[in-house]
């Protein structure tokens, strides 16, 4: 099927004129969205294995991170289309193109510390992903920058939470007002 | 004329890229030289140069971590030996193996760091 032609999109044109390689940016956003989507799935598994007294302390925080990662996917997806891109059409392709490694269950899923290590590494990768997009768009693409910065705020909090649980390093954690509140990405939210 | 060009193209090109004090021991610094992204790594006073992006998904390697000679990509955890560029460990999420990193000769002249690039015309 022939690709449909559209008139110019000023939102995209402004960013190109500012010096952003928009196709590369779309690719980064697709990879980031893929990472959020797969992380949401893998966190569901990890959360299920947070059992017993030790696991129960992790479960609530893992749940906040899990739900917020899904919201990040929802927040990024429209931006990909605004810029002229589209989401992966094949879920397998999405999985393999994700910006971060799959957050697989550890060999011994009953070992809560191993579960926490997986969660922590996943958040660290996410911090790198959004730091890179922020650098790429700073001063050039205010909308993508604003969105990426909001997500980055939450990913940094997630990293700090899991680091506190694993190592005892204080994170300054306060409970979310509701599970998966997403306080920084709220303004980009289209679903509850 | 053509042979002369070939001769020139075989010559490595050297560029002063930073002062030695800018890249202290244990640090990693990304630089762009002739549109080529290079990572300069100071490992206990010995300088190494490798390409700055992971061959797996083109993510910046400076956001990863360095343990001894092993540079680990912070995204899918591919690991490379910075002294040779060789892959030590393949990344996760990949069905085809990634190639080794390109390496660059790095030397110190006075207090300057000089990188040699093979000509790639």
Give the biggest beta sheet of chain B: 6 strands, antiparallel
Strand content of chain A: under 5%
Mean pLDDT of chain B: 88
Multimerization status: heterodimer
Give Rg of chain A in angstroms: 18 Å
Low-confidence stretches of chain A: none
What is the rounded Rg of chain B? 15 Å
The largest sheet of chain B has its strands arranged as 1-10-9-4-3-2
Order of helices and strands of chain B: HEEEEEEEEEE
The helix count of chain A comes to 6
Distance between the terminal alpha carbons of chain A, to the nearest Å? 36 Å
Name the chain pair whose interface involves the most residues: A-B, 15 and 13 residues
Global structural class of chain B: mainly beta
Order of helices and strands of chain A: HHHHHH
Q: What's the β-strand tally of chain A?
A: 0
Strand proportion of chain B, as a percent range, falls in 35-45%
- What does the largest sheet of chain A look like? none
Q: What structural category characterises the helix and strand content of chain A?
A: mainly alpha
> Which percent bin holds the helix content of chain B?
under 10%
Q: Give the terminus-to-terminus CA distance of chain B.
A: 15 Å
Number of helices of chain B: 1
Report what the structure shows.
Chain A has about 190 residues and is mainly α. Chain A is about 65% helix and about 0% strand. Chain A has helices at about 10-15, 20-50, 50-80, 90-95, 110-135, 140-165. Chain A is elongated, with a radius of gyration of 18 Å. Chain B is mainly beta. In chain B, the strands form two sheets. Chain B has a six-stranded antiparallel β-sheet, with no helix packed on it. Classes of the chains: A mainly alpha (about 190), B mainly beta (about 120). The interface of A and B includes residues 95, 99, 102, 131 and 132 of A.
């Amino acid at each position: 099927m022939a690709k449909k032609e559209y008139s110019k999109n000023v939102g995209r044109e402004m960013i190109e004129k500012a010096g952003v390689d928009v196709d590369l940016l779309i690719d980064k956003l697709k990879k980031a969205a893929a990472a959020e989507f797969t992380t949401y799935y893998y966190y569901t598994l990890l959360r299920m294995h947070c059992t017993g007294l030790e696991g129960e302390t992790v479960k609530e925080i893992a749940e906040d991170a899990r739900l917020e990662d899904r919201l990040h996917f929802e927040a990024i997806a429209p931006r990909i289309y605004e810029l002229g891109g589209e989401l992966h059409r094949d879920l397998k392709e999405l999985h393999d193109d994700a910006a971060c490694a799959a957050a697989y269950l550890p060999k011994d899923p009953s070992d809560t510390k191993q579960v926490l290590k997986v969660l922590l590494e996943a958040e660290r990768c996410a911090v790198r992903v959004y730091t890179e997009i922020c650098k790429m768009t700073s001063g050039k693409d205010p909308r993508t920058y604003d969105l990426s910065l909001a997500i980055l705020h939450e990913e940094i909090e997630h990293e700090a939470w899991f680091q506190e649980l694993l190592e005892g390093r204080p994170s300054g954690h306060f409970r979310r007002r509701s599970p998966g509140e997403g306080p920084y990405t709220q303004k980009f939210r289209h679903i509850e | 004329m053509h042979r002369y060009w070939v001769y020139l193209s075989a010559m490595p090109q050297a560029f002063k890229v930073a002062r030695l004090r800018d890249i202290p021991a244990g640090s990693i610094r990304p630089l762009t030289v002739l549109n080529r992204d290079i990572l300069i790594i100071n490992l206990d006073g010995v300088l190494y140069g490798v390409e700055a992006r992971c061959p797996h998904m083109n993510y910046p390697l400076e956001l990863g971590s360095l343990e001894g000679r092993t540079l680990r990509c912070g995204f899918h955890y591919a690991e490379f030996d910075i002294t040779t560029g060789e892959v030590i460990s393949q990344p996760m999420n990949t069905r085809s193996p990634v190639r080794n990193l390109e390496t660059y000769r790095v030397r110190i002249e006075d207090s300057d760091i000089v990188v040699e690039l093979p000509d790639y015309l």
